[in-house]
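Hey,
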Amino acid sequence: MKLKTFKQKLKNGKFLITTEISSPKGTNFIKQIKEIEVLEGFVDAVNICDCPMANMRMSPIAMAKIITESTGMETIPHFTCRDRNIIGLQSELLGAWALGIKNVLAITGDPPTKGDHPGASGVFDLDSKGLVKLVKGLNQGRDHSGNMLEGATDFTIGVVANPCAEDLNAEIEKLAAKIEAGADFIQTQPVYEEHTLYNFLEKVEPFNIPVLIGILPLKSYKMAVNFNEKVEGINIPLAVIDRMKKGPEEGIKISIEFIRKIISRVNGIHLMPLGNYRLVKQIITQLGISKDRNVLHGVI
C-alpha cells in the first residue's frame, strides 16, 4: 500500500510529527544525512531551515532533494523573503516543484544584520503573507503578475505563529491574513505553558486549520535562562527553568509531560532538537508511538 503523503495526513486529521534540520555551511552534507536518517519512520516530514538567523547555509531546496533521495523522507523546506526578489522566489519555487518538493513553509526572515553577513542587502519584496499568496497563485497556474504558467504547482503551504506573542491579538490578525492568502497549516514557535497554548488554540479554532505545536526540549538550566531573557517570542515559566537545575534529562521529561497534556487538543507537534536527533527518537519512543507506521495514531 502506498504511504500517505504529508498533505494527505493533514487532510485526514491524523496526529503528525515533524522536526527540523539546518543545511551545512559548506558542501559536505554527509553529517546531516547521518543525523537525520535515524528518524526514518519516526517523523512525517523534515523541515529544512532557510539560512536561519540570516546565517549563510546551503540552499534548503538542494538539501530537501538530498534528504528525500537519501532517506525517502518527505521534506518541508523554508522559504524566506529576505534573500530573493519576486522573480527569484517564483523561479526557486518552480524549480523546487520540478525536483519533487511538495511542501513549503513561508517565512519573512530575519534581517541580514543579525547574521554572519551583516553587510548583505535584505530584499523583502514580500512578507510571509505575500509569499503565501504568491505560492497559492503558482498552485493555481499563474505567476505573481497574473500570467498563466505552463504547468502549475500544488504545494502544501505552512506558516508560522507565536502563541507567546506579547500582543496575541495582533499575532492572530497577522495569522488570519496568511490563512486568507492560502495557508494550509500552522507551525508554532516553542510553547511551554498549557494556558498560553489553549488561549492561542481558542483564538485560531474558527480558522479550522491544522496546528503543529513547537516543542523545543531544553538542554540545561543556562539555556533555559538565556532563551527566556534573550530570545524574542519564547516565554519559559520560572517553574520549568527551576526544574532544569536537575540536568538535561529533565528537559526531555518536561517536553514529554507537556505533549501528553496537549496531545488531544492539537493536530501534531514540531520537535526542535537543536541538532540532537536521537533526542527526537527518544521522545517519540517514550510517548509510545511506534516506528514504521503509515499514519501516526498518537493515542497516548
